[in-house]
Amino acid sequence: MRHIILAVPVLFLALNQTPDLTGEWALEFTTPRGPASYTMYLTQEGPRLRGHLSSEYGEREVRGSVNGDDVKVSWSEMENGKELDITLTGKIKGDAITGTVRLGAVGEGPFRAERTDGEERSMLAQEFRHE
């Protein structure tokens, strides 16, 4: 009977673990003007996300949050002299985040972000386990 009691808290902790989104991500979505591609760099501290986006047009600071597999990332850009708030709302599954991007009052559409530093992270994890 003790084995069952001990297994329940371990299972509960495993189901409630938040994935670590720290790292580099390739982000793509479609705007009314066509496709947009960014490299997104995130740092996760508990449920909070901080980082920046990089593209051919420069860099933007991002902020966000993660709750279980739910992810939200936001930033602002200047569009025709006005600030445009952009928000990604999605779910993390493995090394991908998919969901909806909202471009202020302009509209919304699908987005996809894929981890681009996964191989490096896997190698570091293997090195850590072997030390």
CATH architecture: Beta Barrel
The helix-strand sequence is HEEEEEEEEH
CATH evolutionary superfamily: Quinohemoprotein amine dehydrogenase alpha subunit, domain 2
Q: Say what the CATH topology is.
A: Lipocalin
Count of separate DSSP helical elements: 2
Strands in their spatial order, largest beta sheet: 1-2-3-4-5-6-7-8
Uncertain stretches of 5 or more adjacent residues? 6-15, 120-131
The CATH class label is Mainly Beta
Cα shape: globular
Number of strands: 8
* Biggest sheet character: 8 strands, antiparallel, barrel
Which labels suit this protein?
single chain; 131 residues; alpha+beta; Lipocalin; 8-stranded antiparallel beta barrel; 2 helices; 21% helix; 60% strand; globular; disordered C terminus
Description of the molecule:
It is built from two helices and eight strands. It is α+β, with helices and mostly antiparallel strands and about 130 residues long. It has one domain (about 15-120): Lipocalin. Strands 1-2-3-4-5-6-7-8 form an eight-stranded antiparallel barrel. The longest helix has 14 residues, at about 1-15. About 20% of the residues are buried.
SSE order and pairing:
Blueprint (H helix, E strand, L loop, with lengths): L1 H14 L7 E9 L2 E12 L2 E8 L2 E10 L2 E10 L2 E12 L2 E8 L3 E9 L2 H13 L1
Antiparallel strand pairs: 1-2, 1-8, 2-3, 3-4, 4-5, 5-6, 6-7, 7-8
